[in-house]
Design brief:
The chain is an alpha/beta fold. It is built from 35 helices and 24 strands. It has 5 domains: about 5-70 and about 155-220, 3-Layer(aba) Sandwich (Rossmann fold); about 75-150; about 235-290 and about 465-575, Rossmann fold (3-Layer(aba) Sandwich); about 305-455; about 605-835, Lambda Exonuclease, Chain A. The longest helix has 22 residues, at about 685-705. Residues about 585-595 and about 630-635 have low confidence and may be disordered. The structure holds iron/sulfur cluster (SF4). Iron/sulfur cluster binds near residues 618, 850 and 856. Iron/sulfur cluster (SF4) binds next to helix 27 and helix 34.
């Protein structure tokens, strides 16, 4: 079977190389992980049209070959715990995890029991082997009975399925495979493949840490020659020693500023995090201070959500309970949590109760407020005295339901992400085999904290847009010009395995020696993976910033940092000391001031100005920093139907030009035509919405018929004007001439309709609380300023598709020159305020936008309310 290998240097773009292979739908491309597949897809779709080749991750490719998907790991663990109970829940679980990892590993490594037993002859642990083999066989039997497979089975089955790959694909391209298992190597050898290796392969491999070990191993296995390219460190390296993690934030800011100075696009800057717990603070800092978008691919730890801190507080309260009494300090902690304290119905009660709590331990009925008492008891009952994991998880699910109801968390609200992630986990695990097991009360919370700390909230950002923040493994294949790696400490980079292996390293070494190939991974192989990443950064990026922290448990600088400081890759590099205030980094580069609005480059629209009034901070995030989060769809605007209504009316009136229309026949024809264009295969829901829209269009025609004869003067007119140093823009839906007057019409398809200004002292407050809008005033102003209407003969009004009528007088602006002048003065003063660099963009925590605002995590509203 033909296999060819192509080498890609680390500074070359492997995606471009891949694209140059003229991919077709008869090809399959196998990526090392989900992230690189996703990035390639985005890259490819920007360049080419047509059918994509089949894109797989290695895991998916194995499932394709085997025709099997592994069952949830919790099912396998439950079966193993059943076969081999080891006392308490946590000990049984730990043992089952170790066994499962071992079984998966020997299956993936194609290691036979004879090989394990052979090595056991020489090991003190050999007496366990008989028993472990029996557990393995029993476990596999039970899995078969249930018709489940685990990861290891998928590996073994995949080897049998290579024929399927030959039938389906002409070529299978493996993109930079690194630490392959034996099964994966065999598969690659058995299918028609092209292997792209992003590497600098040196025959002698004298480079410290043997970074190209995995590539050598694969080439040898395939009987390919190992070419000898000289390794060359291309990146200019800077090393920073942070007093603590905050110090390294200063390094990161410095690196970003230098990249901006050098005009390096943000997406070419990769911040690689060996430890994900740093992710949130870094991403928020970048967005807030630099005004640069970022794409956080590794997800935010669930541990950093208010929901986790709430659960943690409850767990502690149950753990410290004594004879049914609650520890006062922990109870107060619960009361001060925003999920309790931010509730309007509880806040005053909490304040009253707090003053009367004196004893160290308090029986719930002595809390002194019946409502608070029942809230506390019901919350605790959700997690207290649960026997099985399933009962405990069911309790947590009811707790979530209660919280969601009490807090009225709308979908899309940042808190909702934590709830969704946790709910998905609880629902998935509770009905697995593991759910049947009893958990000792005293251990259950320890177990839960460990599980919850592993959950991640995947959120925001786009590939190739903004600074890319990702984990080490995810960064593979993505070409960065600047690489910033904070936390280059031993223990993070390289990191040891999290758990001790069932087979020790020396026994693994013997199995490998006897087999004549690396069937099982050794620690040095793992280290060489880290070495590989480090050397790819060194020879791929132009600039490499490495930071390590001095005051942490894992305080030793990484071995790779030491190689740099000792001058192994050029001159010796002296670490620069950095603290929170920037340390030795020059002052100019230390702080990046809030991004200022330049009036020459910024367009002010009514929507933007309204938002500024309602929440200056959100205005700043959306329009100055350009951070966009998905918004709730307005009723008719779901799936773009609102846009369709606008387009339909525009085309309709551009044809008839005069009104009122006799009927809506032509209007519906246009609507149907546009609908077919935008929704070639509409869902049932969209069809329902379509009928609703048609009905509303029909009623619109009826309303129009009631009007006096009119002439359509303008449609969808975009007007931009310069007022002093400000550019103001608006798009006017329609202007008619009716009965000697100008009628400016704005179509409203959503809920929100606000009254125009009237220049009373209340206006500003009304704008802030969202009752009024500058929209109609701005339209009138723009049209008058351009001389398109005479303000004394103009009215600006809304047509509401929700209410099926032109809205009452309150929502209509009757123009006059005086009003327009007053508005201009008001507008200029507001815009001056917006661009004033001394005017802070403060969050308005009372804003009626807050409840569905996607930025609450950034403004940290929950901490203040
Ligand atoms: S949650 Fe409220 S205060 Fe925070 S950004 Fe959104 S609208 Fe502003």
């Amino acid at each position: 079977m033909s296999t060819s290998v192509e080498f890609v240097r680390p500074h070359e773009n492997i995606f471009e190389k891949l694209e140059s292979l003229d991919l077709s739908f008869r090809d399959a491309v196998v990526f090392p992980n989900e992230r690189s597949r996703f990035y390639f897809r985005e890259f490819y779709l920007k360049k080419k049209e047509g059918v994509l080749p089949s894109l797989f991750t290695m895991e998916e490719f194995l499932s394709f070959l085997s025709g099997k998907v592994p069952t949830d790991q919790e099912n396998s663990l439950g079966i193993l715990m059943d076969i081999h109970p080891s006392g308490s829940f946590s000990i049984s679980l730990a043992y089952a995890e170790k066994l499962l990892e071992f079984f998966n590993e020997i299956d993936a490594g194609m290691v036979g029991w004879d090989e394990i037993e052979w090595v056991a002859e020489y090991e003190p642990w050999k007496r366990f082997m008989d028993e472990v083999r029996k557990i393995y066989e029993e476990y596999k039997n039970r899995m078969r009975e249930k018709e489940w497979v685990d990861k290891g089975d998928v590996y073994r089955e995949a080897i049998k399925g290579v024929e399927k790959a030959r039938r389906h694909f002409e070529r299978i391209i493996f993109v930079n495979p690194l630490a392959l298992t034996t099964a994966e190597r065999r598969i690659i050898r058995s299918v028609p493949s092209i292997i792209l290796l992003q590497t600098l392969v040196s025959e002698e491999d004298r480079i410290p840490g043997r970074p190209f070990h995995h590539h050598h191993r694969l080439l040898k296995y395939l009987g390919k020659e190992i070419p000898s390219f000289e390794f060359e460190a291309r990146a200019a390296i800077e090393v920073y020693e942070g007093e603590d993690r905050h110090g390294l934030l200063s390094m990161m800011e410095h690196a970003l500023l230098c990249a901006m100075d050098a005009d390096i696009p943000p997406e070419k800057v990769g911040i690689i995090l060996p430890d994900p717990s740093y992710a949130r603070v870094i991403s928020e800092r970048i967005m807030e201070r630099y005004g640069i978008k970022c794409n956080l691919t590794m997800g935010l730890p669930f541990m950093e959500t208010p929901l986790y801190s709430f659960l943690d507080t409850i767990f502690t309260l149950v753990e410290t309970e004594k004879d049914g009494k609650l520890r006062k300090d922990d109870l107060l902690e619960l009361f001060s949590h925003p999920y309790f304290y931010a509730r309007k119905d509880l806040k005053d009660r909490i304040e009253k109760v707090k003053k009367n709590l004196e004893e160290t331990y308090i029986p719930p009925d002595a809390i002194g407020d019946s409502i608070l008492q029942s809230e506390v008891v019901s919350v605790l009952d959700c997690v207290r005295k649960k026997r099985t994991l399933r009962e405990l998880y069911d309790g947590l699910l009811s707790l979530i339901t209660v919280l969601e109801r009490e807090l009225e968390i709308p979908p899309g609200y940042p808190h909702a992400d934590g709830f969704n992630v946790l709910t998905r986990h609880l629902v998935r695990v509770k009905d697995t085999e593991l759910g049947r097991f009893s958990v000792e009360q005293e251990k259950s919370f320890e177990f839960l904290r460990e599980i919850l700390s592993g959950l991640r909230i995947h959120k925001f950002g786009e590939p190739f847009k903004g600074v890319q923040i990702m984990g080490v493994l995810e960064s593979r294949l993505i070409p960065f010009e600047v690489v910033v790696v904070p936390l280059m400490n031993e223990g993070y980079f390289p990191s040891p395995r999290k758990k001790e292996l069932f087979l020790p390293d020396d026994a693994r070494g013997r199995i490998n020696e006897r087999a004549g190939e690396d069937k099982l991974e050794l620690q040095r192989h793992r280290d060489s993976t880290f070495s590989y990443f480090f050397h790819v950064w060194l020879s791929g990026a132009k600039k490499l910033y490495l930071g390590y922290v001095k005051e942490e448990k894992k305080s030793t600088p990484s071995r790779f940092v030491e190689q740099v400081t000792l001058g192994l890759y050029g001159e010796e590099v002296k670490p620069v000391k950095v603290g929170y205030e920037g340390g030795e980094i020059k002052k100019r580069e230390r702080f990046f001031e809030r991004r200022i609005i330049n009036p020459d480059e910024f367009e002010f629209s009514p929507t933007r100005i309204d938002l500024y009034f309602q929440c200056p901070y959100r205005f700043y995030l959306e329009y100055v920093l350009g951070i966009r989060e998905e918004k709730e769809e307005e009723e008719l605007e779901g799936k773009g139907l609102g846009k369709l209504v606008h387009e339909t009316l525009q085309r309709f009136y551009s044809e008839i030009r005069e009104g009122p229309p006799e009927d809506g026949k032509r209007l519906f024809e246009i609507f149907e035509e546009l609908f077919r264009r935008d929704y070639p295969v509409p869902s049932g829901r969209t069809l329902l919405r379509k009928e609703l829209v048609k009905e509303r269009l029909r009623m619109f025609v009826e309303e129009e018929k009631k009007r006096k004869p009119f002439k359509v003067l303008m449609l969808e007119r975009s007007i931009t004007t310069q007022t002093g140093r400000f550019r103001i823009k608006g798009v006017v839906d329609r202007v008619d001439e009716e009965d000697g007057r100008f009628v400016v019409i704005d179509y409203k398809t959503g809920y929100q309709v606000k009254t125009p200004l009237s220049f009373t002292p209340d206006d500003r407050e009304d704008l802030r609380n969202g009752k009024r809008s500058v929209q109609l005033d701005t339209y009138l102003y723009l049209l008058s300023k351009r001389g398109e209407v005479d303000p004394d003969r103009t009215e600006v009004r809304f047509y509401s598709f929700r209410e099926n009528k032109y809205l009452e007088k309150r929502f209509t602006k009757y123009g006059s020159k005086r009003e327009v002048e007053l508005f201009e003065g008001f507008l200029i003063s507001v815009l001056e305020e917006i661009v004033d660099e001394n005017n802070p963009f403060e969050p308005n925590y009372e804003s009626n936008l807050c409840d569905s605002c996607p930025y609450a995590a950034l403004c940290r509203r929950w901490e203040y309310v």
